Amino acid sequence: MDVEPLFADRRAAGHALAGALNDLAGRDDVIVLGLPRGGVAVGAEVARALGAPLDVAVVRKLGVPGAEELALGALAFGGVAVYNPDVIAELGIPPAMIEAVVERERTELARREQLYRAGRQPLALGGKTVVLVDDGLATGATMLAAIAAVRTQHPAQVVVGVPLAAPVTCAIVGRAADRTVCLRTPEPFRGVGAWYANFGQLSDDTVRLLLASG
User: Fold this and answer.
1) What pLDDT is attached to residue 1?
2) Which residues touch 182 (CB under 8 Å, ≥6 apart)?
3) Contact in structure between 42 and 76 (CB atoms under 8 Å)
4) Rounded distance, CA 65 to CA 88, Å?
5) pLDDT at 2 (0 to 100)
6) Is the pTM here over 0.85, yes or no?
């Protein structure tokens, strides 16, 4: 059964999300980090509305071999990895297979970080209020990895902002972040893209342009 979209596109979603984070506007200690690719488009709108700098939090899902849509964990910038022990145990995934997935995604993460930053240094997060933005949360694996990576840099506060999320995922992420804003938590969830009228794939070049203008 078709569902009624909640957002026209990522830009509209970012505008709506910015309204819920308006108490952070105009502060010089706020940094917005978008998770590529879609989260950068949403984050660009949030950063613009808050008057905050925009950077990228490069993360990669660690997909189960042969069932890549299922996350056994996620990898984030700074070499941070988080794992889903329940999935690993239930499927009996051997350590060697996990390591092979990690190595492959670590290479891709490094490639994307270099591509997106285009020589720019990452913003310093120590003592800052860091707002992590994505276009939606399904399993939450990549957001949890991003939170863990940001925490290694000792921010003052980690805020997660998303236009929509699966209800249980919003709760899980909420326990890891200092503040979590999930504008909508539709049930049944049906996947992130189901709730956007326009959920087209973003190119790496588009991400680079958004970051360069932010």
Assistant:
1) 47
2) 137, 162, 164, 165, 170, 174
3) no
4) 11
5) 64
6) yes
CB atoms within 10 A of CB 120: 11
So what's the pLDDT on residue 117?
86
Residue ranges in the chain whose pLDDT is less than 70: 1-2
Give yes or no for a contact between 135 and 143, defined as CB atoms under 8 angstroms apart. no
Q: How many residues are present in the chain?
A: 214
> Which of the 8 DSSP states describes residue 196?
B
DSSP lists the bridge partners of residue 71 as 63
Check if the beta carbon of residue 40 is closer than 8 Å to that of residue 10. Answer: no
CA distance linking residue 184 with residue 165, whole number of Å: 7
Judged by DSSP in three states, 76 sits in strand
Nearest partner of 169 among 45, 84, 67, judged by Cα: 84
Which amino acid is located at 7 in the chain? F
Number of other residues whose CB lies within 10 A of the CB of residue 139: 18
Q: What contacts 77, CB < 8 A, 6 or more positions away?
A: 57, 58, 59, 109, 113, 122, 149
Q: Which two tokens stand for residue 28?
A: 């010089």
CA angle in degrees (0–180, nearest 5) for 71-39-36:
65
